[in-house]
């Protein structure tokens, strides 16, 4: 069994986008640079969405231009449309992520478009990315439940994931946006998607609202998933998903993986330090259990 797991660190984007008080750009830059020294290979840096929709990330260009981009690390950013693509490319972005959902109702709240309309909106972005040699990740939100419509049909998750992969996304991240999933459901969802999209092209993106995220990750590792999105200090949440709370904490995922003999290439001590540092900047205790357990006295 392949025992290498790639972590996609999303704290600079997902972790901060829902913070009410504006985090200074300098703190965001320092966060990304600290993360870049922990062994992470993918760090989602920010989001070129409308600043009216997500004021916290209005400084995306300033932040991206200031980070110390290290060789061997990918710094994807969220892009919802061609305007976002133009803004991202103007500051040298080389990898983007487009995002939609398996729920029509959530998509209307989050991106002001239905599922098919969102896919149409991505088509020219993906075409330009292909020509420019820009790598594209795709997100499917609400894969295990929607705050507005409740149950989400597996067939809708599979359809949207297949569409994103078919349009050229090298990886499709499956988002339990509001953290309502449980392990057997998460595994069944992954199995259904993996029947249509190759497992190596799938990532897990689990929020921890109901305390199930780590268990859900484990269940999906058993199914063969090897890419996990996570955020240090358990930060995160989507402003347009009522009740969404933090992502699974990266420190907790890495501790579990290393304990199982799996390799992430990440220095857990440096990661936990960074998580505590970020929590202190946000004025709270770290949301990572490992971060708390290993805090200096
Ligand atoms: P809209 O209002 O329908 O867009 O929003 P529009 O095209 O009509 O434009 C409205 C205004 O925004 C115009 O400006 C545009 O120029 C401007 P005005 O003429 O009024 O001055 N605009 C932009 N400005 C900067 N950058 C842009 C941009 N686009 C338009 N890219 C839109 C549609 C998609 C833009 C909006 O709904 C939006 O930005 N939504 C983003 C919401 C968001 O970021 N949510 C969180 C990320 S998703 C998530 O967290 C889930 C995930 O973590 C996975 C999971 O957990 O499941 C990924
Ligand atoms: Mg998320």
TrEMBL record:
<dbReference type="InterPro" id="IPR000891">
    <property type="entry name" value="PYR_CT"/>
</dbReference>
<keyword id="KW-0456">Lyase</keyword>
<comment type="pathway">
    <text>Metabolic intermediate metabolism; (S)-3-hydroxy-3-methylglutaryl-CoA degradation; acetoacetate from (S)-3-hydroxy-3-methylglutaryl-CoA: step 1/1.</text>
</comment>
<dbReference type="GO" id="GO:0006552">
    <property type="term" value="P:L-leucine catabolic process"/>
</dbReference>
<protein>
    <recommendedName>
        <fullName>hydroxymethylglutaryl-CoA lyase</fullName>
        <ecNumber>4.1.3.4</ecNumber>
    </recommendedName>
</protein>
<keyword id="KW-0479">Metal-binding</keyword>
<dbReference type="GO" id="GO:0046872">
    <property type="term" value="F:metal ion binding"/>
</dbReference>
<dbReference type="GO" id="GO:0046951">
    <property type="term" value="P:ketone body biosynthetic process"/>
</dbReference>
<feature type="domain" description="Pyruvate carboxyltransferase">
    <location>
        <begin position="5"/>
        <end position="272"/>
    </location>
</feature>
<dbReference type="InterPro" id="IPR013785">
    <property type="entry name" value="Aldolase_TIM"/>
</dbReference>
<dbReference type="Pfam" id="PF00682">
    <property type="entry name" value="HMGL-like"/>
</dbReference>
<dbReference type="GO" id="GO:0004419">
    <property type="term" value="F:hydroxymethylglutaryl-CoA lyase activity"/>
</dbReference>
<comment type="similarity">
    <text>Belongs to the HMG-CoA lyase family.</text>
</comment>
<dbReference type="InterPro" id="IPR043594">
    <property type="entry name" value="HMGL"/>
</dbReference>
């Amino acid at each position: 069994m392949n025992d290498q797991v790639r972590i996609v660190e999303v704290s600079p984007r997902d972790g901060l986008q829902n913070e009410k008080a504006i985090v200074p750009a300098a703190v965001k830059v320092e966060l990304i640079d600290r993360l870049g020294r922990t062994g992470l290979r993918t760090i989602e840096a920010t989001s070129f969405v409308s600043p009216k929709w997500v004021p916290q990330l209005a400084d995306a260009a300033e932040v991206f231009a200031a980070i110390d981009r290290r060789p061997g690390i990918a710094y994807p950013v969220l892009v919802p449309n061609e305007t976002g693509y133009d803004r991202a490319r103007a500051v040298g972005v080389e990898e983007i992520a487009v995002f939609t959902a398996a729920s029509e109702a959530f998509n209307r709240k989050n991106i002001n478009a239905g599922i098919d309309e969102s896919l149409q909106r991505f088509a020219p972005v993906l075409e330009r990315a292909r020509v420019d040699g820009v790598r594209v990740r795709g997100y499917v939100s609400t894969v295990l439940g929607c705050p507005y419509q409740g149950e989400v049909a597996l067939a809708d998750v599979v359809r949207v994931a297949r569409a994103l992969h078919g349009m050229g996304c090298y990886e499709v991240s499956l988002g339990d946006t509001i953290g309502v999933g449980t392990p057997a459901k998460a595994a069944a969802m992954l199995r259904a998607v993996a029947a249509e999209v190759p497992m190596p092209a799938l990532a897990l993106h689990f929020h921890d609202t109901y305390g199930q995220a780590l268990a859900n990750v484990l269940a999906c590792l058993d199914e063969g998933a090897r890419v996990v999105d996570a955020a240090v200090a358990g930060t995160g949440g989507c402003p347009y998903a009522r009740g969404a709370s933090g992502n699974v904490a990266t420190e907790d995922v890495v501790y579990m993986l290393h304990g199982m003999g799996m390799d992430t290439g990440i220095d857990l001590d440096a990661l936990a330090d960074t998580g505590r540092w970020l929590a202190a900047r946000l004025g709270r205790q770290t949301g990572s259990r490992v971060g708390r357990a290993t805090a200096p006295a």
